[in-house]
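$ run holo --ligand "fe (ii) ion" --emit tokens
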Amino acid sequence: MTDVSETKKPGDRKITRLADLTASQQADIRQIPAEKDFVNVPLAAERPNGIFTGRDRFDAEQTGVFHRFPVPVTLAAVLPEPGSVVAVEAYGLPLLVSRNRAGEIKVFINACQHKGSKLIEDCEVHEQSRITCPYHAWTYGIDGKLLGVARSDMFEGLDKSKRGLKQLPSVVWGGVVYVQLDGREPDCSNLSAEVAGDFEALGIPEAHVYGRKTFDLKANWKLVLEPFLEGYHVQRLHAASIGDLFVDAPSIVSTFGPNIRQVSGRIGYYPEMLDEDPDNNVHKLVTFAYTAFPNLVIVTSQYYISAMILMPIDVDRTIVHYFMLTPGPATTAKAEEVFKRSYELILNVFGNEDFRAAQITHEGLAAGVPETSTYCGLEVNIIHYYEAFEQLL
Ligand code: FES
Ligand SMILES: [Fe+2]
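-- output --
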């Protein structure tokens, strides 16, 4: 998949129309019935407590998935400019993600080849072509080469060409930077070309990153993921915030291996709306939610897109990197106000509602209750996802 962020810039796109989407996205949207015609199908499905609380299961996921296939670490949109670098704490590893002068993204371990000091300690994006270690000032290019050693006359026989930053194999897929943590050539067999095409149609590679926030949660990563795969909780957990904006609507669902695309109509949706004005912002009519293998969530909203990477750190600990993407930076005070209010709203909804639900659920499960979680017809996508995921363990 090509990294189109080299050619398109944030702000090139103002809104996304139906016609901007892929044929397959449009086909799914056209299958969404009117709200009044929705039919929900009941389901009987269970999962044992141990998939959330068991050490064996966690270890099997680490070996079978997170260290076997490429995993997302950040978005290419975080580094729109060639000659920039950002530090990312990913899956317990300190990483540096850089975009070199040619526009290519590379990933390194954020550790100096002299004695291991972290090179960048903050999480800001640095527009600079060199990285200098804070300890003894060894200097690297953003492509990882060791360029300069302070008092190099004091090192006998030091071969600078052997002391470049340690690189991890990476691939940019639909604007998402994936890394192969075990250092092997990335095995992209579970990434979906369709989903990457969808992300490009949604403008994710060249989006503007309006805000980023990291959450450190006391919950298994799958408990953090579950609310993004089901609509059952929305009117209930989110009753005080966004619950009124959604009905218990089944989504039109397409699966691409262990990747899931859900699309549903917004409140009051009827299919004729699609053709009333071809220049309509399609995000005002429908909401897309993706679970991209293994742990990336994308949710579209009227004026922005949310991206979340749910990184398992331990059985009961997950670090979430949240990104709010807009088509470009705000160009008017009114747009800035909309973005600012949206950012506050979404951080509240996800942070204080969905993530809180994950944490309080983990507490109950850790006490051994219930022995099995039970899932209904409004939660069927969770089961789709687990079935595909569990095949890899
Ligand atoms: S540890 Fe980086 S220069 Fe010494
Ligand atoms: Fe939610």
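-- notes --
Residues 129 and 142 are 6 Å apart (CA to CA).
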